[in-house]
């Protein structure tokens, strides 16, 4: 099998990071606070990455169970390495489009865009218990006039990115009501970018052309957010099927 140097470089950078996108435990706690979760709730962590949100999900339902899934093998292994001896957690290598069972809350941090909001909500509807919710964060414009720098970055990485009204319209089109929405705080971004910066520094010496390109792109991403953080971010939405 031929190894794609660009993909290999990307995973070299992202291996061993504590999380794969912006987020803090308070995001999960806030989402869970909007519904009356039983202590033994069944929760799903869809596209879980290395499992950064599993502990917060267990805090929300300490007698419950978290089914965490991701399709990337080394992320799955990283999560299993931490949670393999906890009977409250099952980590699966699986496609986010094909989740099974039913859950009080389906949590998806920053990964819905792989499917699209309407497609994801339609696919997961069958797995939401009566009265349950889906909580997801999605990249979002917070201004009607973003800078050229911000537009250039997001047009490349997420050309379908919209604003709060656009996300709200897609939720409604999928047949869901909004229980609550809020922006992820700056602390959520720093929780991702601070370890990423340390990883970039560690890898820079001796990096080949492919890895240097990935490192440069990551630096550009971080600088774009730090310089234009008021223009965009992640919108966390907690929604329920109608």
UniProtKB/TrEMBL annotation:
InterPro entries xrefs: Methyltransf_25, SAM-dependent_MTases_sf
One MF annotation (Gene Ontology) recorded for this entry: methyltransferase activity
Any one of the GO BP annotations: methylation
One Pfam family of this chain: Methyltransf_25
Keyword set, alphabetical order: Methyltransferase, Transferase
The UniProt record lists the keyword Transferase: yes
Domain of life from the UniProt record: Bacteria
Domain Methyltransferase: from-to ranges: 45-132
Descriptive protein name: SAM-dependent methyltransferase
Organism of this sequence: Sulfitobacter undariae
Taxonomic lineage: Bacteria, Pseudomonadati, Pseudomonadota, Alphaproteobacteria, Rhodobacterales
């Amino acid at each position: 099998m031929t190894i794609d140097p660009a993909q290999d470089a990307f995973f070299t950078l992202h291996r061993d990071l504590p999380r794969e996108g912006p987020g803090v435990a308070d995001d999960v706690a806030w989402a869970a606070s909007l519904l009356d979760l039983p202590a033994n709730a069944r929760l799903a962590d869809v596209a879980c990455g290395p499992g950064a949100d599993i502990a917060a999900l267990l805090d929300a339902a300490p007698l419950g169970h978290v089914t965490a899934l991701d399709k990337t093998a080394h992320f799955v292994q990283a999560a299993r390495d931490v949670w393999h001896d906890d009977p409250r957690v099952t980590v699966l290598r699986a496609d986010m489009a094909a989740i099974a069972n039913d859950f009080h809350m389906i949590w998806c941090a920053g990964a819905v865009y792989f499917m699209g909001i309407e497609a994801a909500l339609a696919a997961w509807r069958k797995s939401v218990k009566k009265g349950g919710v889906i909580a997801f964060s999605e990249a979002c414009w917070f201004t009607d006039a973003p800078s050229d720098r911000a537009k250039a970055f997001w047009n490349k990485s997420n050309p379908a990115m919209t604003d709060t009204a656009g996300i709200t319209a897609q939720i409604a089109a999928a047949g869901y009501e909004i229980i609550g929405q809020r922006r992820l705080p700056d602390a959520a971004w720093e929780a991702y970018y601070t370890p990423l910066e340390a990883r970039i520094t560690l890898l820079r010496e001796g990096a080949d052309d492919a890895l240097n390109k990935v490192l440069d792109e990551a630096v550009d991403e971080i600088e774009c957010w730090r310089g234009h953080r008021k223009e965009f971010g992640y919108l966390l939405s907690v929604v329920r099927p109608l």
